[in-house]
């Protein structure tokens, strides 16, 4: 018989499905272990070989834990709401639910595209997923629970005294009895004080507006990243280099009324919780930086230049500072361009400049502004603020290095102690509105650079703070500010409340309708509120989100059902929310749904939550450090506060798998500009259009050091290029003389390249649909007539045409080969390049493994007693593989398998006592062949739950030693002796050996040096 992976793998995948081999039980007596992968967004492009890396690793671990006797939950599902499906719907008119379904289950979409389907691709690799628990976030039976969680958030407030979320009814009870003066809650900073009598006298609508200032999810006017091209708000992590990650559209800052989540209430718990989880330090540090805890003080500066003289209308600029000790060093103030006071305090003379600057800044994302530390820009508002102690005027500027969403959106600039303030002050030095830098540090020179240290600082030029250290001055400054009622000590966090609205169609509908503009929650028993049909997925003509196109999208409060929008009367039938939830809504709690995936009444039962508790091992990409992982921890903590989740943290251990990189190919295009300015530029442009596209071979460029890994580079205009241009255009020598050629690398589809030789199939390239513009191109080849492409290792991506699909590997070599090879590539957490050439070696190893068990005539396994060497090879492997899996060092396990099989082959081992446990040890990595070998050995049932072999150290204990026997330091022969011999016994045996007698030639050695287990040396 022969090793036929396709036949074997199909057989066992069918067996696993029919027997539900990997179905986890919720009430098992076995100890539980929950392994989870970050579930994928099902794009139409399907899987490439980079995607399964983490899944294979988690599968190896899951299978190993089953062998150890655990009840393993290893589920899979789809994060199936998202912007890509909506954009595809806009382009093609197809329903997002239809394209999403095809992407998951496979088939052909209405555009005629054949889609492999995520499920079929995953099954082909042989994962031990419990598919009975599959979830799809876009299914209404799933998102009804997301809607329910939203309602719980709306009906909750954060009590700082109990340090947890509580039902909003408890807050109302406090208001009714004593007002809000003594309430210690996380709430809007502008909430006004009121008494119990005032609260009870408020109209119901006024009470609801006040409660919105306390609810954990609330409506508020917020600065958002608005993308006109996509017609929606984007999260910071959906923006790259100031444009949308999808489509590359411009993003601007804009104020909009949005749903927000008060994640800031959990800032300290999110920070402290990092100490209790087994995550890598870089991810923890990313979250610490994002949360950004700062200890300092708030300071209020009176605004001087304002029209009103009424004290109650006095405007203040509030700042948060970590250095209140530097209060006397304030030289100027800077507001974020979006700060609400900017338009109010700017003087008429500065109005035009300020307006232009604000508009310019609105086109830059917060992330871009934070990252850009080199660019200095700003504008003086013409306004001044009053120093709280000196009463001196302080000029107020705006600058984009200050963010409206961080702190108060304003800073008190102390250039002598802050590098960015120092650079800003020096850049605008001498301009009206920029004062001389004040130095408040004793014996410190700030003529060249700011002094940022606070450890050795002594304060000077600061009135009552003179001579004090940082700590002393900080305490004193806060005390004096509190006396003036212009400041107080405070802990601040960078973490801002999360915007929770998206102007999209393909997302969870909010369970919200509006009465007199105020949000009302739909009762949980009427959920889900199902996404309606719409004719088109674009915003409405008047700018409403796509749900504004729905014909049936209003709430009948009597019948408790969704009805026609034409029936809205604002008496019993009201408009529903037109925004949808963001993509992270469904992914912020999905691990809990896997615990009890078919529960129709609850997102998970108490028993299921109590049994599984939380995820023991979570594997996914590091790109989710400050998005998904932070939101998930927030929702988990909230659900724990409400008595649903049992643990504070959702994921005990987190592993970030590295990226598998693709080998991209480049063809090098020569383009031309004209080197001399001309009055008739249009004529030159038209002439340049006549020049054909020219591609030059990589090796030709390399000889002249021209290639820069696909980047733009100028080249010399050589005779070969000139002749091609002349032949096709008949341009004059004068025109040709002034042409300036440059090259640019263009990604080439791997389908038109010979992988072994890097030779481009020119005709296939010209006829490829991607390169229709180049069908008449000229190619400058090597002397042998071949065009050689350039190569570069990059992120594997469909857009770079360097994708290798797992389907192709599985079809040719089998899934076990793919699994072993991906684990063999290198450490799990490191990025590694894909090289298909190594696949055949792993495939050869599996064939060699099979030859231990069977040959062309069938099974060759015997009941022979294993030799000492057989047992040593096996137990070395058991020990190594168990240690490697526990430490996630999967690549070295594969090496050990190869060593073991080579040793057993050399030993001609076919003993059942060795090969049966070997099949179990290798099964987490290569489950299909392991199942087949297990079955051939006469076993019934699956190998998946058989106990993992026990390592026995005695088989690795050496009982003998091969000693080198030396004479005067030169080794002459070796002899094998038992390790338990004494020095005297060893000497006696050596001296009687014929080889020793021959070497000594009748002489007696002066000294016999013996180190048991190491050396024997006869001297003299």
TrEMBL record:
Domain (Methionyl/Valyl/Leucyl/Isoleucyl-tRNA synthetase anticodon-binding) ranges: 871-983
Localization (cell): Cytoplasm
Major enzyme class: ligase
Pfam families the record matches: Anticodon_1, tRNA-synt_1, tRNA-synt_1_2
Positions with a binding annotation for ATP: 798
Record GO terms (molecular function): leucine-tRNA ligase activity
Domain of life (superkingdom): Bacteria
Domain Leucyl-tRNA synthetase editing: 288-481
Family, similarity comment: Belongs to the class-I aminoacyl-tRNA synthetase family.
Name listed for the protein in its UniProt record: Leucine--tRNA ligase
Native species: Flavobacterium fructosi
Lineage: Bacteria, Pseudomonadati, Bacteroidota, Flavobacteriia, Flavobacteriales
């Amino acid at each position: 018989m022969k090793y036929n992976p396709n036949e074997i793998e199909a057989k066992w995948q069918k067996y696993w499905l029919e027997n539900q081999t990997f179905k986890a039980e919720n009430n098992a007596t076995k100890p539980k272990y929950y392994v989870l992968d970050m579930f994928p967004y099902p794009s139409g492009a399907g899987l490439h070989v980079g995607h399964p890396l983490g899944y294979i690793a988690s599968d190896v671990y899951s299978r190993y834990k089953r062998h150890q006797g655990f009840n393993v939950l290893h589920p899979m599902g789809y994060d199936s709401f998202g912007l890509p499906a909506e954009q595809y719907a806009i382009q093609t008119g197809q329903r997002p639910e239809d394209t999403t379904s095809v992407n998951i289950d496979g088939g052909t979409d209405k555009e005629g595209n054949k889609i492999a389907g995520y499920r079929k691709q995953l099954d082909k690799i042989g994962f031990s997923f419990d598919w009975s628990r599959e979830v799809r976030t876009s299914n209404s039976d799933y998102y009804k629970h997301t809607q329910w969680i939203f309602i719980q958030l709306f009906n909750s407030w954060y009590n700082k005294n109990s340090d947890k979320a509580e039902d909003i009814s408890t807050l109302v009870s406090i208001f009714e009895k004593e007002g809000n003066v003594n309430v210690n809650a996380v709430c809007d900073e502008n909430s006004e004080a009121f008494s119990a009598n005032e609260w009870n006298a408020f109209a119901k609508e006024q009470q609801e507006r006040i409660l919105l200032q306390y609810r954990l999810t609330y409506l508020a006017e917020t600065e958002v990243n608005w993308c006109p091209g996509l017609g929606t708000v984007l999260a910071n992590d959906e923006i790259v280099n100031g444009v949308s990650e999808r489509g590359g559209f411009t993003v601007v800052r804009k104020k909009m009324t949005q749903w927000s989540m008060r994640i800031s209430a959990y800032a300290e718990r999110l920070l402290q919780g990092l100490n209790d989880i087994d995550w890598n330090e870089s991810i923890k540090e990313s979250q610490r930086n994002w949360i950004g805890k700062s200890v300092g003080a708030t300071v209020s500066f009176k605004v001087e230049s304002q029209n009103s003289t009424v004290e109650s209308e006095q405007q203040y600029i509030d700042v948060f500072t970590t250095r209140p000790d530097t209060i006397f060093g304030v030289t100027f103030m800077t507001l974020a361009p979006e700060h609400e006071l900017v338009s109010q305090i700017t003087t008429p003379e500065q109005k035009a400049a300020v307006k232009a600057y604000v508009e310019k800044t609105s086109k830059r994302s917060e992330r871009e502004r934070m990252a850009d530390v080199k660019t200095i820009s700003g504008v003086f508002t013409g306004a001044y603020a009053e120093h709280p102690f000196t009463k001196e005027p302080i000029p107020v500027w705006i600058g984009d290095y200050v963010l409206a969403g961080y702190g108060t959106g304003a800073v008190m600039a102390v250039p002598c102690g802050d590098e960015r303030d120092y650079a800003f002050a020096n850049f605008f030095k001498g301009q009206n509105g920029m004062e001389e830098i004040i130095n408040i540090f004793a014996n410190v020179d700030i003529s060249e650079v700011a002094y940022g240290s606070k450890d050795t600082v002594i304060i000077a030029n600061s009135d009552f703070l003179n001579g004090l250290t940082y700590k002393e001055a900080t305490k004193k400054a806060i005390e004096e500010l509190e006396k003036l009622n212009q400041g107080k000590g405070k802990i601040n966090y960078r973490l801002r409340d999360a915007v929770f609205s998206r102007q999209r169609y393909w997302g969870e509908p909010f369970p919200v309708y509006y009465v007199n503009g105020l949000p009302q929650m739909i009762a949980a028993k009427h959920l889900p509120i199902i996404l309606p049909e719409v004719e088109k997925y674009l915003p409405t003509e008047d700018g409403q989100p796509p749900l504004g196109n729905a014909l049936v999208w209003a709430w009948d409060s009597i019948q408790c059902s969704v009805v026609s929008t034409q029936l809205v009367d604002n008496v019993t039938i009201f408009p529903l929310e037109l925004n949808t939830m963001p993509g992270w809504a469904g992914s912020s709690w999905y691990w809990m749904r896997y615990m009890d995936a078919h529960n129709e009444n609850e997102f998970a039962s108490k028993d299921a939550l109590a049994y599984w508790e939380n995820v023991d091992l979570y594997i996914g990409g590091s790109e989710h450090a400050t998005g998904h992982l932070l939101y998930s921890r927030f929702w988990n903590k909230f659900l724990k506060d409400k008595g649903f989740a049992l643990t504070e943290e959702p994921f005990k251990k987190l592993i970030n798998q590295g990226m598998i990189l693709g080998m991209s190919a480049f063809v090098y295009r020569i383009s031309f500009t004209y080197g001399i300015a001309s009055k008739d530029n249009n004529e030159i442009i038209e002439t340049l259009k006549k020049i054909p596209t020219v591609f030059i071979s990589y090796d030709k460029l390399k000889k002249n050091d021209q290639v820069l890994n696909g980047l733009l580079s100028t080249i010399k205009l050589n005779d070969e290029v000139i002749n091609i241009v002349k032949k096709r255009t008949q341009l004059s020598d004068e025109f040709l003389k002034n042409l300036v050629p440059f090259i640019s690398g263009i990604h080439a589809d791997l389908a038109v390249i010979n992988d072994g030789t890097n030779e481009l199939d020119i005709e296939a390239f010209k006829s490829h649909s991607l390169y229709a513009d180049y069908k008449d191109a000229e190619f400058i080849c090597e002397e042998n007539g071949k065009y050689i492409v350039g190569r570069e290792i990059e992120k594997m991506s469909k857009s770079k045409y360097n994708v290798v699909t797992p389907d192709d590997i599985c079809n040719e070599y089998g899934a076990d080969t793919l699994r072993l090879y991906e684990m063999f590539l290198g450490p799990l957490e490191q990025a590694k390049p894909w090289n298909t050439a190594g696949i055949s070696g792993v495939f050869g190893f599996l064939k060699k493994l099979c030859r231990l068990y069977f040959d062309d005539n069938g099974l060759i396994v015997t009941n022979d007693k294993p030799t000492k060497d057989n047992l040593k090879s096996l137990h070395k492997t058991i020990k190594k593989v168990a240690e490697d899996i526990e430490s996630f060092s999967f690549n070295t396990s594969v090496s050990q398998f190869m060593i073991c099989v080579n040793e057993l082959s050399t030993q001609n081992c076919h003993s059942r006592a060795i090969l049966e446990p070997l099949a179990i040890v290798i099964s987490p990595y290569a489950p299909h062949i392991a199942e087949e070998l297990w079955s051939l050995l006469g076993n019934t049932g699956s190998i998946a739950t058989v106990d993992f072999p026990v390592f026995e150290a005695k088989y690795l204990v050496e009982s003998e030693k091969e000693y080198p026997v030396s004479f005067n330091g030169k080794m002459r022969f070796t002899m094998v002796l038992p390790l338990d011999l004494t020095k005297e016994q060893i000497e006696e045996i050596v001296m009687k050996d014929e080889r020793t007698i021959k070497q000594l030639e009748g002489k007696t050695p002066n000294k016999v040096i013996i180190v048991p287990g190491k050396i024997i040396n006869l001297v003299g």
